[in-house]
Amino acid sequence: MSQDPVESTRGLMNQTAHLRHGFLDVLGAATSAPVPTIAQRAMNSPFVATVYERLWRPTAFYFASGLTHRAEQIRAASALRLSTAHRLLDVACGPGNFTAPLAAALPEEGLAVGFDISEPMLARAVADNSGPRTCYVRGDARRLPFGPETFDAICCFGALYLMPEPFRVAGEMIRVLKPGGRIAILTSYAPDVAPLHQVMTAGARSIGLTMFGRHEFVDLFTAAGLVDIDQQTQRALQFVVAAKPGTAG
Predict the structure, then answer these.
(1) 69-79 vs 57-65: helix axis angle to the nearest 10?
(2) What CATH code is carried by the domain that includes residue 78?
(3) What is the tens place of the pLDDT at every residue in 160-208?
(4) Residue 201 domain-assigned?
(5) pTM value?
(6) Radius of gyration of the chain (CA)
(7) Which of 117, 118, 90 is nearest to 103 (CA)?
(8) Which parts of the sequence belong to the Methyltransferase domain (predicted)?
């Protein structure tokens, strides 16, 4: 019999977590997510959490990249090689719109952990995207509550540009990735053409988003010793995947 996903997830954590509303919480009921920008405030809205999975996210990202939501999921599962992975961490998982389908691509005993700071988003994830291979955790992605080399695959789709310290978050993702594991991110992209880059960056900044160029995450992954780095750019988004060298013990 498969182990309960909540208990399996507890076994991976290096911090105490309490089960609240169906998800594990390392921050506590009195801790609120920081919401200094319009974009971050939206991500902590119960209304946005309700419409995000079925309306906002698929529509917005289709216009931003030209890919359908299903095409994104297929690309992610392939890039992360989930058919041979066992533990997946989905950082900034929102309502679990990627966590659940990616969990289905794992082997039978696999576990997908969705991680977010927003209580409304996690409440939707528990309600809409729970399953025998999924567990959701509330915490701060700048301090992931897992030990080094815990996950075979790690992703963060459509969130790094919302975060106040995106490169610190990426560093944490690399820390908890096992040798031989794979990491994938989908984030904003502003072409290097100066006038276009300036316009896109200024517009995004006005609502609290960060537009990244072609080199920031590729350089970060390279400096961290990751290999097999591949970057795809589509319109206003970039998809970057890489592997941590070595073999998991």
Answers:
(1) 80
(2) 3.40.50.150
(3) 998 989 999 999 999 999 999 999 999 999 887 555 555 555 455 555 6
(4) yes
(5) 0.85
(6) 17
(7) 90
(8) 89-181
